[in-house]
Design goal:
Largest sheet: 2 strands, antiparallel
Number of domains: 1
Oligomer: single chain
Order of helices and strands: HHEEH
Strand order of the largest sheet: 1-2
Number of strands: 2
Distance between the termini: 56 Å
Strand content: under 5%
């Protein structure tokens, strides 16, 4: 999954979450104007919060999948699954998702690895450019 696909999916899920919240507000207001019982209103609230949690859980799963795939592409080790500060078990699906601390940890490791790889490429690029410049200078001196 690339970053554009991830952003598109998350944006759609966030829209769905916003729509769900608006629908809940309308339904709650309607229930209150119709003098529905507190139990009915609580059930409505429970239904809304369950749907909200499902959407938020799916967003966390998408973020986790993306970041884990990025770290695997760079052959970086994943943090220990037993570390509860890094991994969280979803109450809805039972899947392991990265916590905010886990996301920050892996993103930091990814950035560091990418920077180290760029530095190696830049070093070789500078060396090759220098050699090409020296060869061009030598050819210019020989031809004159």
């Amino acid at each position: 999954m690339n970053i554009l696909t991830l952003k598109f999916k998350i944006k759609n899920l966030q829209k769905l979450c916003d729509e769900n919240y608006k629908d809940f507000k309308k339904a709650k207001k309607k229930a209150q104007t119709q003098n529905m019982s507190n139990e009915d209103i609580q059930e409505l609230t429970h239904t809304h919060s369950t749907e909200y949690e499902l959407i938020k859980d799916e967003i966390m799963e998408l973020n986790t999948q993306y970041i884990v795939s990025q770290s695997q592409k760079l052959i970086l080790p994943l943090p220990d699954y037993q570390d509860d500060t890094i991994w969280d078990i979803s109450k809805i699906t039972g899947m392991r998702n990265l916590t905010n601390k886990g996301v920050a940890h892996l993103r930091s490791a990814i950035r560091k690895e990418q920077q180290e790889r760029r530095e190696g490429v830049l070093l070789w690029t500078a060396a090759i450019t220098g050699i090409i410049g020296a060869i061009i200078g030598l050819i210019a001196i020989i031809k004159t």
